[in-house]
Amino acid sequence: MTAPASCWTVQPGLAAKATQLAVIASEAQQSRASLLHSFRPALLLLLLTAPGALAAPASLTISHAWIRYITPTLPAAGYFTLANNTDHVVTLDGATSPDCGQLMLHQSIVQNGTAKMQMVSSIPVLSHGSVTFSPGAYHLMCMSPSAVMKPGQTVPITLHFLGGASLDATFPVRTATGK
Ligand SMILES: [Cu+2]
Fold first, then answer.
1. Cα–Cα distance list, 138 to 21, 85, 121, 122, 172 (Å)
2. Ion ligand 1 residue ranges (Cβ < 5 Å)
3. Residue range 133-158, pLDDT digits in tens
4. What is the DSSP string of 112-140?
């Protein structure tokens, strides 16, 4: 049984739901096993919705993460897929890394026939949807790659979400051709 409507923001509706689950759990006293089974998601939900609980739940995942590194003097680009398996929209609104100096959300676009990049302040990810950062589309722009950023190494990147949650990930560094 998985936690229902896992969410790290405080929502009155969810708190009510948690109370409801606790009531259901206390009614399930015929079997001690079923009581424990019903109670666990309620406790988890309470933990996730408690004020100050800002860590992202496991239902937000990053896959296919990598960094395209060119030279120490050029910005490096970060790519990944972010899946939102929660029951609500999450909004990515920033990224940080000790190995990037400034790290920005960027989007490659074609305007009047010319390819260019623009800064993006936030990117919503629909409930049970995903967003892909890939060459020619959304990417992280690592403005000042640190000395440890070399193909074959890894660097830590933290994604930040509206409401204060964050998600840590390890990005392998690859060459310009993705090797
Ligand atoms: Cu860019």
1. 40, 20, 12, 11, 18
2. 106, 117, 141
3. 999 999 999 999 999 999 999 999 99
4. TTEEEEEE-S-EEE-TTEEEEE-TTSEEE
Name residue, tokens 């496991």. 58
- Ligand 1 centre to CA of 36 (Å) is 50
Give pLDDT tens digits for 33-47: 443 344 444 434 433
pTM summary value = 0.68
Q: Where in the chain is CATH 2.60.40.1890? A: 60-174
**Residue 140 Cα to ligand 1 middle (Å):** 7
Architecture of domain 60-174: Sandwich (2.60)
The helix, strand and coil proportions of the chain, stated in percent and rounded to the nearest 5, come to 20, 40, 40
Higher-pLDDT residue of 131 and 10 is 131
Helix (H) or strand (E) holding 42: helix 32-49
Kindly give the distance from the C-alpha atom of residue 18 to the centroid of ligand 1, in angstroms, as a whole number: 43
